[in-house]
Request: fold
Amino acid sequence: MIEISNLGKYFGNTKILRNINVKIEPNEIFAIVGHSGAGKSTLLRCINGLEKYDEGSLKIFGEEIGKLSEERLRFLRKDIGMIFQHFSLLEQKSVYQNVALPMQLWGYKKSDINKKAEELLTLVGLIHKKNSYPKALSGGEKQRVAIARALTLEPKILLSDEATSALDPKTTLSILELLKTINKTLGITVILVTHEMNVVKNAAKRALLLEHGQIIGLGDIESLFLKPDERMRKFLGEEDMLPEYGVNIRLYFPSTVSDKAIVTAMARELNIDFNIVWGKLEKLGENVVGSLVINVDTKYADITKNYLQTQKEIFWETI
Ligand SMILES: Nc1ncnc2c1ncn2[C@@H]1O[C@H](COP(=O)(O)OP(=O)(O)OP(=O)(O)O)[C@@H](O)[C@H]1O
Ligand SMILES: [Mg+2]
Reply:
Protein backbone atom coordinates (compact mmCIF):
# COMPACT_ATOMS: atom_id res chain seq x y z
CA MET A 1 0.00 0.00 0.00
CA ILE A 2 2.84 2.38 0.93
CA GLU A 3 6.19 1.49 -0.55
CA ILE A 4 9.19 3.58 0.35
CA SER A 5 12.59 2.81 -1.10
CA ASN A 6 15.91 4.57 -0.65
CA LEU A 7 14.10 7.75 0.32
CA GLY A 8 16.29 10.76 1.03
CA LYS A 9 15.36 14.31 2.00
CA TYR A 10 17.37 17.47 2.56
CA PHE A 11 16.53 20.76 4.23
CA GLY A 12 19.14 23.05 2.71
CA ASN A 13 22.43 21.19 2.94
CA THR A 14 21.34 19.03 5.84
CA LYS A 15 20.20 15.52 5.09
CA ILE A 16 17.14 14.95 7.25
CA LEU A 17 16.08 11.52 5.98
CA ARG A 18 18.45 8.98 4.52
CA ASN A 19 18.00 5.65 2.87
CA ILE A 20 14.51 4.95 4.20
CA ASN A 21 13.19 1.56 3.07
CA VAL A 22 9.86 0.27 4.31
CA LYS A 23 6.61 -1.22 3.09
CA ILE A 24 3.44 -0.53 5.02
CA GLU A 25 0.69 -3.04 4.39
CA PRO A 26 -3.04 -2.35 4.02
CA ASN A 27 -4.97 -2.51 7.26
CA GLU A 28 -2.06 -2.48 9.67
CA ILE A 29 -1.29 -0.18 12.58
CA PHE A 30 2.27 0.89 11.98
CA ALA A 31 4.32 3.12 14.27
CA ILE A 32 7.13 5.50 13.41
CA VAL A 33 9.11 6.02 16.60
CA GLY A 34 12.00 8.27 17.45
CA HIS A 35 13.33 11.02 19.63
CA SER A 36 12.61 14.67 18.93
CA GLY A 37 14.21 15.85 15.70
CA ALA A 38 14.65 12.33 14.30
CA GLY A 39 12.63 13.17 11.19
CA LYS A 40 9.31 11.50 12.03
CA SER A 41 7.03 14.37 11.03
CA THR A 42 9.09 15.00 7.91
CA LEU A 43 8.63 11.38 6.85
CA LEU A 44 4.90 11.62 7.52
CA ARG A 45 4.66 14.82 5.49
CA CYS A 46 6.47 13.11 2.61
CA ILE A 47 3.81 10.39 2.73
CA ASN A 48 0.94 12.81 2.26
CA GLY A 49 2.82 14.90 -0.28
CA LEU A 50 3.12 18.02 1.89
CA GLU A 51 6.90 17.73 1.69
CA LYS A 52 8.97 16.87 -1.37
CA TYR A 53 11.70 14.24 -1.18
CA ASP A 54 15.01 14.47 -3.02
CA GLU A 55 16.04 10.85 -3.48
CA GLY A 56 14.42 7.46 -3.91
CA SER A 57 10.82 6.50 -4.31
CA LEU A 58 7.60 6.79 -2.31
CA LYS A 59 4.62 5.01 -3.78
CA ILE A 60 1.10 4.96 -2.42
CA PHE A 61 -1.42 2.67 -4.14
CA GLY A 62 1.32 2.21 -6.75
CA GLU A 63 1.60 5.92 -7.58
CA GLU A 64 4.89 7.80 -7.22
CA ILE A 65 3.98 10.72 -4.94
CA GLY A 66 6.80 12.96 -6.15
CA LYS A 67 5.53 12.78 -9.73
CA LEU A 68 1.90 13.66 -9.11
CA SER A 69 0.36 16.91 -10.28
CA GLU A 70 -1.12 19.23 -7.63
CA GLU A 71 -4.58 18.22 -8.79
CA ARG A 72 -3.85 14.49 -8.47
CA LEU A 73 -2.23 15.11 -5.08
CA ARG A 74 -5.37 16.84 -3.90
CA PHE A 75 -7.35 13.69 -4.70
CA LEU A 76 -4.76 11.44 -3.13
CA ARG A 77 -4.92 13.46 0.09
CA LYS A 78 -8.61 12.66 0.24
CA ASP A 79 -7.51 9.09 0.87
CA ILE A 80 -5.16 10.15 3.65
CA GLY A 81 -6.65 11.62 6.83
CA MET A 82 -4.42 13.26 9.41
CA ILE A 83 -4.56 14.13 13.10
CA PHE A 84 -2.12 16.20 15.13
CA GLN A 85 -0.88 16.76 18.67
CA HIS A 86 -2.74 20.05 19.09
CA PHE A 87 -5.93 18.92 17.35
CA SER A 88 -6.07 21.87 14.86
CA LEU A 89 -9.77 22.52 15.38
CA LEU A 90 -11.35 25.81 14.37
CA GLU A 91 -12.24 27.51 17.64
CA GLN A 92 -15.03 29.66 16.20
CA LYS A 93 -16.84 26.66 14.74
CA SER A 94 -18.93 24.11 16.62
CA VAL A 95 -18.04 20.42 16.85
CA TYR A 96 -20.52 19.65 14.08
CA GLN A 97 -19.21 22.45 11.84
CA ASN A 98 -15.61 21.32 12.35
CA VAL A 99 -16.50 17.81 11.24
CA ALA A 100 -18.62 19.03 8.33
CA LEU A 101 -15.94 21.36 6.95
CA PRO A 102 -13.89 18.99 4.73
CA MET A 103 -17.10 17.70 3.13
CA GLN A 104 -18.29 21.26 2.48
CA LEU A 105 -14.96 22.10 0.84
CA TRP A 106 -15.40 19.11 -1.45
CA GLY A 107 -18.94 20.20 -2.29
CA TYR A 108 -20.82 17.30 -0.75
CA LYS A 109 -24.63 17.47 -0.59
CA LYS A 110 -26.02 18.88 2.63
CA SER A 111 -27.96 15.72 3.46
CA ASP A 112 -24.87 13.56 2.90
CA ILE A 113 -22.80 15.87 5.10
CA ASN A 114 -25.36 15.65 7.85
CA LYS A 115 -25.58 11.87 7.68
CA LYS A 116 -21.81 11.39 7.67
CA ALA A 117 -21.14 13.92 10.46
CA GLU A 118 -23.77 12.33 12.70
CA GLU A 119 -22.44 8.85 11.97
CA LEU A 120 -18.84 9.80 12.76
CA LEU A 121 -19.68 11.82 15.87
CA THR A 122 -21.54 8.76 17.11
CA LEU A 123 -18.55 6.56 16.34
CA VAL A 124 -16.21 8.77 18.38
CA GLY A 125 -18.77 9.05 21.20
CA LEU A 126 -19.45 12.79 20.93
CA ILE A 127 -22.83 13.11 19.27
CA HIS A 128 -24.19 14.72 22.45
CA LYS A 129 -21.61 17.52 22.08
CA LYS A 130 -22.26 18.32 18.45
CA ASN A 131 -23.28 21.90 19.20
CA SER A 132 -20.47 22.59 21.67
CA TYR A 133 -17.43 24.68 20.80
CA PRO A 134 -13.84 23.40 21.10
CA LYS A 135 -13.06 25.59 24.09
CA ALA A 136 -15.69 23.71 26.07
CA LEU A 137 -14.08 20.32 25.35
CA SER A 138 -11.36 18.36 27.13
CA GLY A 139 -8.16 17.42 25.25
CA GLY A 140 -9.40 13.89 24.67
CA GLU A 141 -12.73 15.16 23.34
CA LYS A 142 -10.99 17.58 21.01
CA GLN A 143 -8.91 14.73 19.61
CA ARG A 144 -12.10 12.71 19.07
CA VAL A 145 -13.57 15.57 17.06
CA ALA A 146 -10.33 15.79 15.06
CA ILE A 147 -10.51 12.04 14.40
CA ALA A 148 -14.13 12.32 13.22
CA ARG A 149 -13.11 15.18 10.93
CA ALA A 150 -10.18 13.18 9.55
CA LEU A 151 -12.54 10.35 8.59
CA THR A 152 -15.19 12.38 6.75
CA LEU A 153 -13.75 11.85 3.27
CA GLU A 154 -13.49 8.09 3.91
CA PRO A 155 -9.71 7.86 3.81
CA LYS A 156 -7.89 4.56 3.41
CA ILE A 157 -4.98 5.77 5.53
CA LEU A 158 -4.98 7.73 8.78
CA LEU A 159 -1.76 9.52 9.75
CA SER A 160 -1.39 10.47 13.39
CA ASP A 161 1.40 12.85 14.35
CA GLU A 162 1.84 12.62 18.13
CA ALA A 163 -1.95 12.63 18.53
CA THR A 164 -1.76 11.49 22.14
CA SER A 165 1.28 13.48 23.27
CA ALA A 166 -0.74 16.26 24.85
CA LEU A 167 -3.04 13.86 26.70
CA ASP A 168 -2.82 12.17 30.10
CA PRO A 169 -2.13 8.40 30.18
CA LYS A 170 -5.76 7.37 30.68
CA THR A 171 -7.05 9.57 27.87
CA THR A 172 -4.18 8.34 25.70
CA LEU A 173 -5.39 4.78 26.18
CA SER A 174 -8.96 5.69 25.27
CA ILE A 175 -7.82 7.44 22.08
CA LEU A 176 -5.67 4.43 21.17
CA GLU A 177 -8.69 2.16 21.70
CA LEU A 178 -10.66 4.38 19.34
CA LEU A 179 -7.90 4.23 16.71
CA LYS A 180 -7.79 0.44 17.04
CA THR A 181 -11.57 0.26 16.58
CA ILE A 182 -11.34 2.47 13.50
CA ASN A 183 -8.58 0.28 12.10
CA LYS A 184 -10.63 -2.86 12.67
CA THR A 185 -14.14 -1.79 11.78
CA LEU A 186 -13.39 0.60 8.92
CA GLY A 187 -10.31 -1.25 7.66
CA ILE A 188 -8.20 1.92 7.70
CA THR A 189 -4.41 1.69 7.76
CA VAL A 190 -3.13 3.72 10.70
CA ILE A 191 0.35 5.22 10.87
CA LEU A 192 1.23 6.48 14.31
CA VAL A 193 4.13 8.86 14.77
CA THR A 194 5.15 8.96 18.40
CA HIS A 195 8.00 9.22 20.84
CA GLU A 196 6.03 7.33 23.50
CA MET A 197 6.96 3.66 23.74
CA ASN A 198 3.72 2.84 25.55
CA VAL A 199 1.72 4.02 22.57
CA VAL A 200 3.72 1.76 20.26
CA LYS A 201 3.45 -1.26 22.53
CA ASN A 202 -0.25 -0.79 23.08
CA ALA A 203 -1.43 -0.14 19.58
CA ALA A 204 1.03 -1.03 16.84
CA LYS A 205 1.75 -4.35 15.19
CA ARG A 206 4.94 -3.21 13.56
CA ALA A 207 7.20 -0.22 14.04
CA LEU A 208 10.20 1.49 12.61
CA LEU A 209 12.69 3.33 14.72
CA LEU A 210 14.14 6.48 13.36
CA GLU A 211 17.33 8.07 14.65
CA HIS A 212 18.98 11.04 12.97
CA GLY A 213 16.88 10.40 9.87
CA GLN A 214 17.89 6.76 9.56
CA ILE A 215 16.01 3.56 10.29
CA ILE A 216 17.76 1.77 13.14
CA GLY A 217 15.11 -0.86 13.72
CA LEU A 218 12.16 -2.25 11.81
CA GLY A 219 9.90 -5.16 12.58
CA ASP A 220 7.04 -6.46 14.65
CA ILE A 221 6.91 -5.00 18.13
CA GLU A 222 7.48 -8.31 19.91
CA SER A 223 10.91 -8.68 18.37
CA LEU A 224 11.74 -4.98 18.68
CA PHE A 225 10.93 -4.72 22.36
CA LEU A 226 11.48 -8.17 23.73
CA LYS A 227 14.62 -9.03 21.80
CA PRO A 228 16.12 -5.63 21.25
CA ASP A 229 19.48 -5.53 19.54
CA GLU A 230 22.22 -3.26 20.82
CA ARG A 231 21.01 -0.14 19.01
CA MET A 232 17.46 -0.68 20.21
CA ARG A 233 18.66 -1.18 23.79
CA LYS A 234 20.54 2.10 23.58
CA PHE A 235 17.46 3.74 22.18
CA LEU A 236 15.33 2.46 25.03
CA GLY A 237 17.98 3.57 27.50
CA GLU A 238 18.37 0.06 28.91
CA GLU A 239 22.07 -0.12 28.20
CA ASP A 240 22.92 2.07 31.18
CA MET A 241 21.12 -0.20 33.58
CA LEU A 242 23.21 -3.31 32.92
CA PRO A 243 26.00 -4.21 35.35
CA GLU A 244 29.44 -4.29 33.79
CA TYR A 245 30.61 -7.28 35.84
CA GLY A 246 29.58 -10.95 35.54
CA VAL A 247 27.24 -12.14 32.79
CA ASN A 248 23.85 -10.58 32.03
CA ILE A 249 21.19 -12.95 30.79
CA ARG A 250 17.86 -11.87 29.51
CA LEU A 251 14.91 -14.25 29.81
CA TYR A 252 11.59 -14.07 28.00
CA PHE A 253 8.62 -16.06 29.11
CA PRO A 254 4.88 -16.25 28.47
CA SER A 255 2.67 -14.42 30.93
CA THR A 256 1.39 -17.76 32.25
CA VAL A 257 4.80 -18.34 33.82
CA SER A 258 5.53 -16.02 36.72
CA ASP A 259 8.93 -14.42 37.11
CA LYS A 260 8.96 -15.39 40.78
CA ALA A 261 8.48 -19.05 39.92
CA ILE A 262 11.36 -18.94 37.46
CA VAL A 263 13.73 -17.27 39.89
CA THR A 264 12.81 -19.50 42.81
CA ALA A 265 13.10 -22.70 40.80
CA MET A 266 16.43 -21.71 39.34
CA ALA A 267 17.95 -20.65 42.65
CA ARG A 268 16.82 -23.86 44.28
CA GLU A 269 17.97 -26.16 41.52
CA LEU A 270 21.36 -24.59 40.91
CA ASN A 271 22.07 -23.43 44.41
CA ILE A 272 23.85 -20.32 43.19
CA ASP A 273 23.39 -16.63 43.75
CA PHE A 274 22.31 -14.34 41.01
CA ASN A 275 21.00 -10.82 40.94
CA ILE A 276 17.84 -9.67 39.31
CA VAL A 277 18.74 -6.57 37.31
CA TRP A 278 15.19 -5.88 36.33
CA GLY A 279 12.05 -7.63 35.33
CA LYS A 280 8.83 -6.55 33.77
CA LEU A 281 5.62 -7.69 32.24
CA GLU A 282 4.94 -6.07 28.92
CA LYS A 283 1.63 -5.75 27.17
CA LEU A 284 2.38 -6.09 23.49
CA GLY A 285 -0.86 -5.63 21.61
CA GLU A 286 -3.14 -8.38 22.89
CA ASN A 287 -0.34 -10.43 24.46
CA VAL A 288 1.33 -10.09 27.82
CA VAL A 289 4.92 -11.26 27.87
CA GLY A 290 7.47 -11.24 30.65
CA SER A 291 11.12 -10.37 30.47
CA LEU A 292 13.72 -10.56 33.16
CA VAL A 293 17.39 -9.69 33.20
CA ILE A 294 19.60 -11.53 35.67
CA ASN A 295 23.27 -11.13 36.43
CA VAL A 296 25.38 -14.15 37.41
CA ASP A 297 28.97 -14.51 38.43
CA THR A 298 31.08 -15.46 35.39
CA LYS A 299 31.99 -18.80 36.95
CA TYR A 300 28.31 -19.79 37.12
CA ALA A 301 27.40 -18.62 33.64
CA ASP A 302 27.68 -22.04 32.01
CA ILE A 303 25.60 -23.98 34.51
CA THR A 304 22.96 -21.26 34.38
CA LYS A 305 22.82 -21.43 30.60
CA ASN A 306 22.68 -25.24 30.67
CA TYR A 307 19.78 -25.05 33.09
CA LEU A 308 17.93 -22.52 30.95
CA GLN A 309 18.46 -24.75 27.93
CA THR A 310 16.27 -27.38 29.61
CA GLN A 311 13.41 -24.93 30.24
CA LYS A 312 11.16 -25.19 27.21
CA GLU A 313 8.99 -22.18 27.96
CA ILE A 314 11.83 -19.76 28.48
CA PHE A 315 13.77 -18.07 25.71
CA TRP A 316 17.03 -16.46 26.74
CA GLU A 317 20.11 -14.70 25.47
CA THR A 318 23.19 -13.21 27.01
CA ILE A 319 23.40 -9.45 26.63
N1 LIG B 1 10.93 23.25 7.18
C1 LIG B 1 12.12 22.92 7.71
N2 LIG B 1 13.25 23.59 7.37
C2 LIG B 1 14.45 23.23 7.87
N3 LIG B 1 14.64 22.23 8.74
C3 LIG B 1 13.56 21.52 9.13
C4 LIG B 1 12.24 21.83 8.64
N4 LIG B 1 11.36 20.97 9.20
C5 LIG B 1 12.09 20.17 10.00
N5 LIG B 1 13.40 20.49 9.96
C6 LIG B 1 14.50 19.80 10.69
O1 LIG B 1 14.45 18.44 10.33
C7 LIG B 1 14.73 17.61 11.45
C8 LIG B 1 13.61 16.61 11.64
O2 LIG B 1 12.44 17.33 12.01
P1 LIG B 1 11.04 16.61 12.29
O3 LIG B 1 10.07 17.67 12.60
O4 LIG B 1 10.74 15.71 11.16
O5 LIG B 1 11.42 15.77 13.58
P2 LIG B 1 10.45 14.92 14.52
O6 LIG B 1 11.06 13.55 14.65
O7 LIG B 1 9.05 14.99 14.05
O8 LIG B 1 10.62 15.66 15.93
P3 LIG B 1 9.52 15.95 17.09
O9 LIG B 1 9.40 14.65 17.87
O10 LIG B 1 10.15 17.02 17.91
O11 LIG B 1 8.25 16.36 16.45
C9 LIG B 1 14.96 18.54 12.63
O12 LIG B 1 16.34 18.71 12.78
C10 LIG B 1 14.31 19.84 12.18
O13 LIG B 1 14.96 20.93 12.75
MG1 LIG C 1 7.32 15.84 14.82
Q: What stands out?
A: The chain is about 35% helix and 30% strand. Residues 40-41, 161 surround magnesium ion (ligand 2) (CB under 6 Å). The mean pLDDT is 91. The radius of gyration is 23 Å.
